[in-house]
Amino acid sequence: MIKVIATDLDGTLFYPKRKRNMIPSKNIEFLKQFKEAGGKIVLVSGRSHFYAAKVIERLGFVVDSICCNGAVVHYDEVLKEEHFLPLNFGDILKELEEKFDFNGQALMSKNIQLAIRGRSDNTCKTKLNNAIFSIFYSLQGVYKEKYVSDPKVFDEELKKGEIYKFLLYFGTNKKAQKAAEAAANYINKTYDAIEAAYSGGSVEITDRNISKAAGLNRYCEAFGISKDEVIVCGDSGNDVAMFETFNEHSFVMSHAPKGVKKFARYELDRVSDLKDYIEKLESEKKE
To answer: Mean pLDDT throughout 54-82?
Structure first.
Protein backbone atom coordinates (compact mmCIF):
# COMPACT_ATOMS: atom_id res chain seq x y z
CA MET A 1 0.00 0.00 0.00
CA ILE A 2 1.32 3.42 -0.95
CA LYS A 3 1.44 5.73 2.08
CA VAL A 4 3.63 8.57 0.75
CA ILE A 5 3.93 10.45 -2.52
CA ALA A 6 7.15 12.46 -2.61
CA THR A 7 7.23 14.81 -5.57
CA ASP A 8 9.71 17.25 -7.01
CA LEU A 9 8.31 20.64 -8.04
CA ASP A 10 9.88 22.17 -11.16
CA GLY A 11 9.35 19.95 -14.17
CA THR A 12 7.29 17.52 -12.09
CA LEU A 13 4.40 18.77 -9.93
CA PHE A 14 4.44 22.04 -11.91
CA TYR A 15 4.38 20.21 -15.25
CA PRO A 16 2.92 21.30 -17.58
CA LYS A 17 3.55 24.87 -16.47
CA ARG A 18 0.61 27.12 -15.67
CA LYS A 19 1.83 30.72 -15.66
CA ARG A 20 -1.07 31.98 -13.57
CA ASN A 21 -2.00 29.00 -11.41
CA MET A 22 1.44 27.43 -10.85
CA ILE A 23 0.13 23.85 -10.48
CA PRO A 24 -2.10 22.03 -13.02
CA SER A 25 -5.58 21.47 -11.56
CA LYS A 26 -5.47 17.73 -12.28
CA ASN A 27 -2.34 17.37 -10.15
CA ILE A 28 -3.95 19.30 -7.29
CA GLU A 29 -7.13 17.23 -7.40
CA PHE A 30 -5.22 13.94 -7.46
CA LEU A 31 -3.05 14.88 -4.47
CA LYS A 32 -6.06 16.17 -2.56
CA GLN A 33 -7.85 12.83 -3.04
CA PHE A 34 -4.74 10.91 -1.98
CA LYS A 35 -4.41 12.99 1.18
CA GLU A 36 -8.10 12.66 2.03
CA ALA A 37 -7.71 8.88 1.73
CA GLY A 38 -5.06 9.02 4.47
CA GLY A 39 -1.88 9.35 2.43
CA LYS A 40 1.03 11.69 3.10
CA ILE A 41 2.35 14.13 0.51
CA VAL A 42 5.89 15.49 0.65
CA LEU A 43 7.21 18.28 -1.54
CA VAL A 44 10.86 17.32 -2.14
CA SER A 45 12.59 20.18 -3.85
CA GLY A 46 15.69 22.24 -4.37
CA ARG A 47 13.46 25.26 -3.75
CA SER A 48 13.47 27.19 -0.48
CA HIS A 49 11.13 26.54 2.45
CA PHE A 50 9.75 30.03 1.86
CA TYR A 51 8.66 28.99 -1.63
CA ALA A 52 7.27 25.67 -0.38
CA ALA A 53 4.87 27.67 1.81
CA LYS A 54 3.70 29.48 -1.34
CA VAL A 55 3.13 26.12 -3.09
CA ILE A 56 1.15 24.79 -0.13
CA GLU A 57 -1.02 27.89 -0.27
CA ARG A 58 -1.70 27.21 -3.95
CA LEU A 59 -2.55 23.57 -3.24
CA GLY A 60 -5.13 24.65 -0.69
CA PHE A 61 -4.24 22.00 1.88
CA VAL A 62 -1.29 21.30 4.19
CA VAL A 63 1.48 18.96 3.07
CA ASP A 64 5.00 18.29 4.35
CA SER A 65 8.17 19.58 2.70
CA ILE A 66 11.84 18.71 2.27
CA CYS A 67 13.51 21.78 0.78
CA CYS A 68 16.91 22.99 -0.38
CA ASN A 69 17.67 19.40 -1.46
CA GLY A 70 17.12 18.05 2.06
CA ALA A 71 18.71 20.84 4.10
CA VAL A 72 15.37 21.99 5.54
CA VAL A 73 12.63 19.58 6.64
CA HIS A 74 9.13 20.53 7.79
CA TYR A 75 6.36 18.16 8.75
CA ASP A 76 3.24 18.56 10.85
CA GLU A 77 3.80 22.27 10.13
CA VAL A 78 6.93 22.31 12.31
CA LEU A 79 10.61 22.78 11.40
CA LYS A 80 12.20 19.39 12.18
CA GLU A 81 15.68 19.63 10.61
CA GLU A 82 18.06 22.22 9.22
CA HIS A 83 21.57 21.69 7.91
CA PHE A 84 24.02 24.46 7.01
CA LEU A 85 27.01 24.56 4.69
CA PRO A 86 30.40 24.50 6.50
CA LEU A 87 31.67 27.81 7.84
CA ASN A 88 34.67 27.70 5.46
CA PHE A 89 32.45 27.53 2.39
CA GLY A 90 33.57 31.02 1.34
CA ASP A 91 37.10 29.66 0.82
CA ILE A 92 35.75 26.72 -1.18
CA LEU A 93 33.77 29.13 -3.36
CA LYS A 94 36.91 31.08 -4.23
CA GLU A 95 38.54 27.84 -5.41
CA LEU A 96 35.49 26.96 -7.52
CA GLU A 97 35.50 30.40 -9.14
CA GLU A 98 39.10 29.87 -10.21
CA LYS A 99 38.39 26.44 -11.67
CA PHE A 100 34.97 26.83 -13.33
CA ASP A 101 33.58 29.46 -15.67
CA PHE A 102 30.03 29.69 -14.29
CA ASN A 103 27.92 32.75 -15.04
CA GLY A 104 26.07 33.29 -11.79
CA GLN A 105 25.62 32.14 -8.24
CA ALA A 106 22.87 32.14 -5.64
CA LEU A 107 22.28 31.12 -2.07
CA MET A 108 19.34 30.16 0.11
CA SER A 109 19.77 30.80 3.81
CA LYS A 110 17.87 30.72 7.07
CA ASN A 111 16.78 34.33 6.67
CA ILE A 112 17.02 35.05 2.94
CA GLN A 113 14.80 33.22 0.47
CA LEU A 114 17.22 33.77 -2.39
CA ALA A 115 20.22 36.05 -2.92
CA ILE A 116 21.74 36.18 -6.39
CA ARG A 117 24.80 37.65 -8.06
CA GLY A 118 27.21 36.97 -10.89
CA ARG A 119 30.85 36.13 -10.37
CA SER A 120 32.68 38.10 -7.70
CA ASP A 121 35.18 39.63 -10.14
CA ASN A 122 34.43 43.04 -11.66
CA THR A 123 34.95 42.49 -15.40
CA CYS A 124 32.61 43.81 -18.10
CA LYS A 125 31.52 40.23 -18.81
CA THR A 126 30.62 39.74 -15.17
CA LYS A 127 28.60 42.98 -15.05
CA LEU A 128 26.69 41.87 -18.15
CA ASN A 129 26.06 38.42 -16.68
CA ASN A 130 24.83 40.02 -13.45
CA ALA A 131 22.30 42.08 -15.41
CA ILE A 132 21.13 39.05 -17.43
CA PHE A 133 20.90 36.97 -14.27
CA SER A 134 18.62 39.52 -12.59
CA ILE A 135 16.42 39.86 -15.69
CA PHE A 136 16.08 36.07 -15.92
CA TYR A 137 14.77 35.84 -12.37
CA SER A 138 12.42 38.78 -12.78
CA LEU A 139 10.71 37.00 -15.72
CA GLN A 140 9.86 33.78 -13.88
CA GLY A 141 6.34 34.93 -13.02
CA VAL A 142 4.53 32.74 -10.49
CA TYR A 143 7.56 30.43 -10.36
CA LYS A 144 9.84 33.23 -9.18
CA GLU A 145 11.44 33.01 -5.76
CA LYS A 146 11.52 36.33 -3.90
CA TYR A 147 15.12 37.42 -4.34
CA VAL A 148 17.66 40.12 -3.59
CA SER A 149 20.51 41.02 -5.92
CA ASP A 150 22.53 43.29 -3.63
CA PRO A 151 26.15 41.96 -3.46
CA LYS A 152 26.48 43.30 0.10
CA VAL A 153 23.54 41.20 1.29
CA PHE A 154 25.01 38.20 -0.52
CA ASP A 155 28.40 38.60 1.17
CA GLU A 156 26.78 39.16 4.58
CA GLU A 157 24.88 35.88 4.28
CA LEU A 158 28.09 34.08 3.33
CA LYS A 159 29.77 35.40 6.47
CA LYS A 160 26.85 34.48 8.76
CA GLY A 161 27.27 30.82 7.84
CA GLU A 162 23.56 29.93 7.90
CA ILE A 163 23.37 28.84 4.27
CA TYR A 164 21.15 25.89 3.42
CA LYS A 165 22.03 25.64 -0.26
CA PHE A 166 24.36 27.30 -2.75
CA LEU A 167 23.93 27.31 -6.52
CA LEU A 168 26.30 27.78 -9.44
CA TYR A 169 24.67 28.68 -12.77
CA PHE A 170 26.37 27.72 -16.01
CA GLY A 171 23.52 28.39 -18.46
CA THR A 172 20.64 26.63 -20.19
CA ASN A 173 22.12 25.01 -23.30
CA LYS A 174 23.51 21.47 -23.58
CA LYS A 175 27.10 22.65 -23.19
CA ALA A 176 26.18 24.37 -19.92
CA GLN A 177 24.37 21.26 -18.69
CA LYS A 178 27.45 19.12 -19.32
CA ALA A 179 29.62 21.70 -17.56
CA ALA A 180 27.29 21.62 -14.55
CA GLU A 181 27.42 17.84 -14.39
CA ALA A 182 31.22 17.89 -14.59
CA ALA A 183 31.44 20.52 -11.84
CA ALA A 184 29.12 18.51 -9.57
CA ASN A 185 31.25 15.40 -10.05
CA TYR A 186 34.41 17.37 -9.30
CA ILE A 187 32.96 18.85 -6.11
CA ASN A 188 31.87 15.45 -4.80
CA LYS A 189 35.31 13.97 -5.44
CA THR A 190 37.29 16.94 -4.09
CA TYR A 191 35.50 18.19 -0.98
CA ASP A 192 34.54 16.00 1.96
CA ALA A 193 32.39 18.60 3.70
CA ILE A 194 29.88 19.34 0.92
CA GLU A 195 27.58 17.53 -1.48
CA ALA A 196 26.73 18.57 -5.04
CA ALA A 197 24.00 17.63 -7.50
CA TYR A 198 23.30 19.04 -10.95
CA SER A 199 19.94 20.16 -12.27
CA GLY A 200 19.90 21.35 -15.86
CA GLY A 201 22.68 23.89 -16.21
CA SER A 202 23.14 24.51 -12.51
CA VAL A 203 24.99 22.90 -9.61
CA GLU A 204 23.28 22.70 -6.22
CA ILE A 205 25.56 22.45 -3.18
CA THR A 206 24.54 21.40 0.34
CA ASP A 207 26.23 20.06 3.43
CA ARG A 208 27.73 16.57 3.05
CA ASN A 209 25.24 13.67 3.23
CA ILE A 210 22.35 16.07 2.68
CA SER A 211 20.17 15.23 -0.31
CA LYS A 212 16.54 14.78 -1.23
CA ALA A 213 16.92 11.04 -0.68
CA ALA A 214 18.54 11.39 2.75
CA GLY A 215 15.87 13.83 3.90
CA LEU A 216 13.06 11.61 2.66
CA ASN A 217 14.65 8.54 4.25
CA ARG A 218 14.74 10.24 7.67
CA TYR A 219 11.18 11.43 7.17
CA CYS A 220 9.99 7.88 6.51
CA GLU A 221 11.88 6.56 9.53
CA ALA A 222 10.15 9.14 11.73
CA PHE A 223 6.75 7.80 10.67
CA GLY A 224 7.68 4.11 10.47
CA ILE A 225 7.11 4.00 6.73
CA SER A 226 9.04 1.49 4.60
CA LYS A 227 10.59 2.28 1.21
CA ASP A 228 8.12 0.06 -0.63
CA GLU A 229 5.28 2.27 0.63
CA VAL A 230 6.69 5.39 -1.03
CA ILE A 231 6.30 6.77 -4.55
CA VAL A 232 8.96 9.25 -5.65
CA CYS A 233 8.83 11.31 -8.82
CA GLY A 234 11.19 13.85 -10.35
CA ASP A 235 12.92 14.92 -13.52
CA SER A 236 16.51 16.05 -12.89
CA GLY A 237 19.93 15.11 -11.56
CA ASN A 238 19.10 16.09 -7.99
CA ASP A 239 16.35 13.43 -8.04
CA VAL A 240 18.68 10.54 -8.95
CA ALA A 241 19.48 9.66 -5.33
CA MET A 242 15.72 9.41 -4.63
CA PHE A 243 15.27 7.07 -7.58
CA GLU A 244 18.08 4.85 -6.33
CA THR A 245 17.00 4.83 -2.67
CA PHE A 246 13.26 4.42 -3.31
CA ASN A 247 13.55 2.48 -6.53
CA GLU A 248 10.53 0.16 -6.30
CA HIS A 249 8.04 2.95 -7.02
CA SER A 250 10.33 5.51 -8.66
CA PHE A 251 8.96 7.63 -11.51
CA VAL A 252 10.87 9.94 -13.82
CA MET A 253 9.10 12.47 -16.00
CA SER A 254 9.01 11.48 -19.67
CA HIS A 255 10.63 14.79 -20.69
CA ALA A 256 13.65 14.25 -18.38
CA PRO A 257 17.19 13.84 -19.80
CA LYS A 258 18.21 10.30 -20.75
CA GLY A 259 21.01 10.40 -18.19
CA VAL A 260 18.41 10.84 -15.45
CA LYS A 261 15.78 8.45 -16.81
CA LYS A 262 18.02 5.40 -16.48
CA PHE A 263 17.90 5.58 -12.66
CA ALA A 264 14.10 5.38 -12.28
CA ARG A 265 11.94 2.30 -12.74
CA TYR A 266 9.01 3.95 -14.52
CA GLU A 267 8.26 6.97 -16.70
CA LEU A 268 5.45 9.44 -16.08
CA ASP A 269 3.83 12.17 -18.19
CA ARG A 270 2.04 13.95 -15.37
CA VAL A 271 1.87 13.53 -11.59
CA SER A 272 -1.88 12.98 -11.81
CA ASP A 273 -1.20 9.83 -13.88
CA LEU A 274 -0.03 8.15 -10.66
CA LYS A 275 -3.68 7.58 -9.82
CA ASP A 276 -3.90 4.68 -12.28
CA TYR A 277 -0.72 3.13 -10.92
CA ILE A 278 -1.94 3.27 -7.31
CA GLU A 279 -5.33 1.83 -8.23
CA LYS A 280 -3.60 -1.03 -10.07
CA LEU A 281 -1.46 -1.83 -7.01
CA GLU A 282 -4.52 -1.85 -4.76
CA SER A 283 -6.41 -4.09 -7.17
CA GLU A 284 -3.53 -6.58 -7.36
CA LYS A 285 -3.29 -6.64 -3.57
CA LYS A 286 -6.99 -7.57 -3.26
CA GLU A 287 -6.53 -10.46 -5.69
So the answer is: 96
Same domain, 74 and 97: no
Residue type, 70: G
Domain ends where: 190, 207, 224?
A: 207
Distance CA 60, CA 280 (A): 27
CATH label of the domain that carries residue 237: 3.40.50.1000
Residue 98 burial by Cβ neighbours in a 10 Å radius (0-12, 13-18, 19+): exposed
What's the average model confidence in pLDDT over 210-230? 97
Q: Which residues contact 178 (CB under 8 A, 6 or more apart)?
A: none
Q: Is the pLDDT of residue 153 over 80?
A: yes
Give the helix/strand (H/E) hosting 274: helix 274-286
The full DSSP string for 24-35 is: -HHHHHHHHHHH
Give me the amino acid identity at 38. G
| Residues 156-204: tens digit of each pLDDT | 999 999 999 999 999 889 899 999 999 999 999 999 999 999 888 999 9
E strands within the chain? 4-7, 40-44, 64-67, 72-75, 78-82, 104-109, 115-118, 163-169, 194-199, 202-207, 230-234, 250-253, 266-268
Is residue 247 within 8 Å of residue 231, measured between CB atoms? no
CB-facing half-sphere around the CA of 147: CA atoms within 13 A? 25
